[in-house]
Write a structure and sequence with these properties.
The protein is 18% helix and 34% strand. It has 682 residues and is α+β, with helices and mostly antiparallel strands. The chain folds into two domains: 5-271, Beta-galactosidase, Chain A, domain 5, CATH 2.70.98; 287-569, Aldolase class I (TIM Barrel), CATH 3.20.20.70. The strands form five sheets. It has a 17-stranded antiparallel beta sheet that branches. Strands 27-26-25-24-23-22-28 form a seven-stranded parallel beta sheet. The structure holds calcium ion. Calcium ion binds at residues 176, 448-449, 467, 473.
Length: 682
C-alpha cells in the first residue's frame, strides 16, 4: 500500500510537471543555432533560464526577478505573451576597433503576469547572438505599479562547473585591483567583467550593457559553490535602485567564445547599446597625449601649489613645446586650479573656473593653439559631486570660450555626500549627466575613477576612454602590477570598453632624473635608487600595450626627455589609436596575447604581442595582409638578454620585407613583448 502511494504521487507530480513543461518551456537560439537559452516558470511561478552551447549546459537553471520594497516580484507568475523576432544590421562606430560591426541576434520577449489579484506585469527580453547573450527586465506602465524601489535583483548565474575565473572583488567604490585567478568556488564577490574558462575550453564573461539609470551590478556567491548572484550597489537607505514605470534594467550579458581572443573580438556589449545620439561627430577626434602626470606620481613635482608645483605657466609651455616636437597631439595638466591644498577639508573645492596664481590658463590655451597642440582640461572633483554639478555648465562654457575640447575627470577619495558609494545609482546618474552635458558642449571625456563602462560610447561617442583599472600609476608608488596583470586586463576590464592604462614608460628603472636636461622641473626628489619600484615589463612590452589596450585617447606618459631621440619612440609616433579592424592572433588569459589591428582609413597594420613572467616563442602567420602586396615590417623586440626584472630596457629594432605568406617568429622575454608596424611598400 505504501509503495503504491509513492508511485501515485510520482505520477501526479510527473504529469503536473509535464503539463506545465509543455506550457512554459520557451527556447531561443543564436543565428548559428549553437547557443540556446531556455526560459521557464518553475512550480512556484518563478522565472528561470538556462544556457547551452552545442547542447552542453554552460549555465544551469538560474532565477530571475526582483524583490521590491513592497512585494516579492520574482514568483507567482504566468506567461501571458511571448514574441520571437530576429534582427540583422551593420553599423559603424564613430571611434572603435572595427570599421563596421554586425548586430545579428534572435530575440525572445516574454510578458509575465502575477497570478494574484494585483496582476502586475514584468517583461523579460533575451537576445541571443553568435557570441553570447543579453537579457534585460522591463516593467511597463500599468495600474498597480508606479514607484519602483528594488531591494534585490534576483538574477542568478548558476555556472555549470567550477570554472577557472579571473576576477576582482565586488568593491562598491573601486575597480583598481590586481585580478585573481581561482576556481569560481573561491569567488566571494566580484565586479564585472568577470571571465571564465570551462573544462572544455569555452570562455565566458559576465558583464552588463547600457547601464543608464540603475546601480552597478556586482556578483556575490550564492547558496551553491558555483552560483553567482547579482548584488546591486545600494543607496544610503539600503534601496538598490529607484525608479518609475516604464522602467528597464541594463542588459545582463554573458559573452561566449571558443578561444580567449574571441572575448576581445566580440562586439556584444556595444550591440546591446543604443545607436549614436550625436548628429555631428566631426569634432570627435581621438589622439595621443602626454602630461605632467607621471612626474607627479613619481614624486618629482606636486599637483598642489608650492615650490615644486607642476602646473605652472612656464612648465606647461615647455610641455606644449615637447608635445609639438614629439608629434603628440595633446597635453594634460592636472593641478591647474585652486583648491587642491584644501582637499578633504571642504566640500566646495576645487575651483573649476579659477587657475592657481602661477598658471595662466588664457595664455596657455593660446600658446597651445599656436603650437597646434590640444590643452586638456582637468576636473578633479575630490568626490564633491554637488559642487561639481553646479559648476558643470560654467566650466564647459569656459572651456569652449578658450577652445578646449577635452577633459579628464577624476574622483579621488570618498564621495560627498559621503554615504554614497561611487558605483551606486546616484553616481551612475552623475556620470551620465556629465557625459550628456559634455556632448551638448562638444567636449570629449576621459574619466578616471569612473563607473565601469558598459558600451555607452556607442550612444555618446564623446566618451573617449576611462580608467577604472589598476593602471600605470601603481607602478610609481606601490608594489606595482605583476607582469601577468597586463595580459589579464585585455580579457577582463577591456571587455567593458576603452582603457586609459597609461602605458609607454621608457625609463623603466627610473634612472635618468639626475641628468641635466631635467633641471627645469626643479624636482622635489631624485629617482629612487635601487632597490626600488620600477615598471614590471620590458620596454618592448610598453610599446605592445599601445596596440593591445584600446584607448581613443592614448597617453605617452613618460617624461618627454625620455622619449626625445629614443629610437623606439618612432613606434608610438606611428601607431594609430583607433582602428578599422582587429584580430586576436593568439591568446590565453593571464599568460599571453598577440593582437593585430589595422589603422583607421590606412593600409597599415600594427601588432602587439605580450607575455607574463614566462618567456615565449610564437610563429605568427601574416595571412591577414592583402594578397600580392609587399610590406615593410618594423619590429621592436626584446633584446636577447632582456628580462622584466633585471634587464627591461634591452631592445632591438629590425626591419624585414613581409607578405601575407610570411610567418613571423616572435620571441618574447620574461615579462616581455614585441611591437610591429607593417606598412605597404609602394
Ligand atoms: Ca586611479
Amino acid at each position: 500500500m505504501k509503495y503504491l502511494f509513492i508511485l501515485t504521487a510520482c505520477i501526479i507530480l510527473c504529469s503536473c510537471s509535464s503539463t506545465s513543461n509543455k506550457n512554459t518551456f520557451l527556447t531561443v537560439s543564436s543565428p548559428d543555432e549553437r547557443i540556446q537559452v531556455t526560459f521557464f516558470l518553475n512550480e512556484n511561478g518563478e522565472p528561470e533560464y538556462f544556457l547551452e552551447k552545442d547542447e552542453k549546459k554552460l549555465v544551469e537553471s538560474s532565477k530571475l526577478g526582483f524583490i521590491l520594497k513592497d512585494y516579492d516580484f520574482s514568483k507567482d507568475f504566468e506567461i501571458v505573451e511571448k514574441r520571437h523576432s530576429a534582427f540583422d544590421d551593420t553599423w559603424s562606430p564613430v571611434v572603435g576597433v572595427y570599421k563596421s560591426i554586425r548586430n545579428n541576434y534572435n530575440e525572445l520577449k516574454i510578458t509575465l503576469k502575477e497570478k494574484n489579484d494585483q496582476k502586475r506585469v514584468l517583461d523579460i527580453t533575451f537576445r541571443i547572438f553568435n557570441d553570447g547573450i543579453g537579457f534585460r527586465y522591463n516593467i511597463p506602465e500599468q495600474p498597480n505599479i508606479s514607484k519602483i524601489e528594488i531591494l534585490s535583483e534576483e538574477t542568478q548565474f548558476n555556472l555549470a562547473g567550477n570554472y577557472s575565473s579571473w576576477w576582482i572583488p565586488g568593491d562598491f567604490d573601486s575597480y583598481e585591483y590586481v585580478y585573481n585567478r581561482t576556481p569560481v568556488s573561491e569567488v566571494d564577490s566580484a565586479n564585472t567583467p568577470i571571465s571564465f574558462k570551462t573544462k572544455d575550453g569555452i570562455y565566458l564573461s559576465i558583464h552588463e550593457a547600457d547601464l543608464t539609470d540603475y546601480s552597478d551590478m556586482t556578483l556575490k556567491k550564492g547558496a551553491k559553490e558555483t552560483l553567482l548572484e547579482a548584488n546591486l550597489v545600494p543607496w544610503p537607505d539600503g534601496i538598490k535602485v529607484k525608479g518609475e514605470t516604464p522602467f528597464q534594467s541594463p542588459w545582463r550579458t554573458i559573452q561566449i567564445a571558443e578561444n580567449a581572443g574571441g572575448l576581445i573580438e566580440s562586439s556584444l556589449i556595444l550591440n546591446l547599446n543604443e545607436p549614436n545620439e550625436i548628429e555631428d561627430v566631426s569634432w570627435i577626434k581621438p589622439m595621443k597625449y602626454t602630461g605632467i602626470w607621471w612626474s607627479v606620481h613619481l614624486g618629482f613635482e606636486t599637483f598642489e601649489t608650492g615650490p615644486h608645483h607642476a602646473a605652472t605657466t612656464d612648465k606647461t609651455k615647455r610641455m606644449i613645446d615637447w608635445a609639438s616636437k614629439l608629434g603628440i597631439e595633446g597635453v594634460l595638466v592636472e593641478g591647474w586650479n585652486k583648491g587642491w591644498d584644501k582637499r578633504n577639508k571642504s566640500k566646495e573645492i576645487p575651483d573649476f573656473l579659477q587657475a592657481t596664481d602661477d598658471y595662466n590658463l588664457e595664455i596657455l590655451a593660446d600658446y597651445a593653439k599656436s603650437k597646434n597642440v590640444e590643452l586638456i582640461m582637468h576636473h578633479e572633483t575630490f568626490g564633491n559631486i554637488e559642487h561639481y554639478e553646479k559648476n558643470l555648465i560654467p566650466s564647459f562654457e569656459m572651456m569652449k570660450e578658450l577652445g578646449i575640447s577635452y577633459v579628464k575627470g577624476g574622483y579621488a577619495g570618498k564621495i560627498n555626500p559621503s554615504e554614497q558609494y561611487k558605483h551606486g545609482q546616484f553616481m551612475v546618474r552623475h556620470y551620465r549627466k556629465q557625459l550628456e552635458t559634455a556632448a551638448k558642449y562638444g567636449i570629449m571625456l576621459n574619466i578616471h575613477e569612473p563607473i565601469k563602462q558598459t558600451g555607452i560610447q556607442r550612444t555618446y561617442p564623446n566618451f573617449m576612454t576611462a580608467e577604472g583599472v589598476r593602471g600605470m600609476e601603481f607602478e610609481a608608488w606601490s608594489e606595482g602590477n605583476p607582469p601577468s596583470h597586463t595580459v589579464t586586463i585585455p580579457f577582463t576590464r577591456m571587455l567593458a570598453g576603452p582603457v586609459d592604462y597609461n602605458a609607454g614608460i621608457f625609463d623603466i628603472q627610473f634612472e635618468s632624473i639626475d641628468e641635466k636636461e631635467f633641471n627645469w622641473r626643479k624636482p622635489k626628489k631624485k629617482y629612487p635608487k635601487n632597490p626600488g619600484p620600477s615598471v614590471k615589463t620590458t620596454l618592448a612590452k610598453q610599446l605592445a600595450l599601445h596596440v593591445v589596450l584600446f584607448s581613443p585617447l592614448q597617453m605617452s606618459p613618460d617624461l618627454p626627455e625620455n622619449y626625445h631621440d629614443h629610437p623606439a619612440f618612432k613606434f608610438i609616433q606611428d601607431v594609430d589609436v583607433v582602428w578599422d579592424d582587429t584580430k586576436v592572433l593568439n591568446a590565453e588569459i593571464g599568460e599571453f596575447i598577440t593582437v593585430a589591428r589595422k589603422g583607421k582609413d590606412s593600409p597599415e597594420w600594427f601588432i602587439g604581442s605580450m607575455t607574463n613572467e614566462e618567456p615565449r616563442n610564437f610563429k605568427i602567420p601574416l595571412s591577414f595582409l592583402d594578397n600580392n602586396k609587399k610590406y615593410k615590417a618594423t619590429i621592436y623586440k626584446d633584446g636577447v638578454e632582456a628580462h622584466w626584472e633585471d634587464n627591461p630596457t634591452s631592445y632591438e629594432i629590425t626591419e624585414q620585407e613581409v607578405t601575407n605568406e610570411t610567418i613571423l617568429d616572435i620571441a618574447l622575454a620574461a615579462g616581455g613583448g614585441q611591437a610591429i608596424s607593417i606598412s605597404p611598400i609602394y
